[in-house]
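Batch 3, record 17
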Amino acid sequence: MTDYALPLPPQPSVAIAGSAARFPVRRIFCVGRNYAEHAREMGNDPTKEPPFFFTKPADALVEDGATIAYPPATRDLHHEAELVIAIGTGGADIPEDRALSHVWGYAPGNDLTRRDLQAEAKAARRPWDMAKAFDASAVCGAIVPVARCGHPARATIRCTVNGALRQEADIADMIWPVAGIIAHLSRLVTLAPGDLIYTGTPAGVGAIAPGESCVVEIAGLGRAGVTVTATG
Ligand code: MN
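Prediction for the assembled complex:
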């Protein structure tokens, strides 16, 4: 047995709907600008861009029902309601017509974003990491196995803050659908079992103030809700 100098870190994982077992999470990938209306609200042209990706650390995961601290270094924490793909079978150069067979399940998620830091990074042509990959930035609901939900082509995705509707769209409006995302991403990295892919957010992103609760729901896939503490 290997002798490690420090205790091994805990294995990040997410609940599975209807099961006591947990889904072990390896990496978290995220798609940028995957709904035309959101690309426009961020000042971009949705017709020109192939999918692009950024990442979050797996230990940034937060589960449905959690309370998290208002994150440091920001005054503009934003919600981004997203469909999350859970990869069950890895691979590279996955053809689009085989891509769905690599999916283990789906969940609602919230790609929490320090929008002020992202705006600064964009202006300075610097990486987005500190805007996207901070502690507790990856909210994920219980994963629904494909065996239960199939591969939903359309479903309403909604985001509320303290009960007020902020985002409402259909996952069918994604510029790059699930199979295309997997095909593109697998040309850039070798996907592995346990990888999660956040698939981008529709229009209506906005702030979550200290003390507020934010809930993302996708029809047929449950919810991913989080409460942010009143003080940072
Ligand atoms: Mn996002």
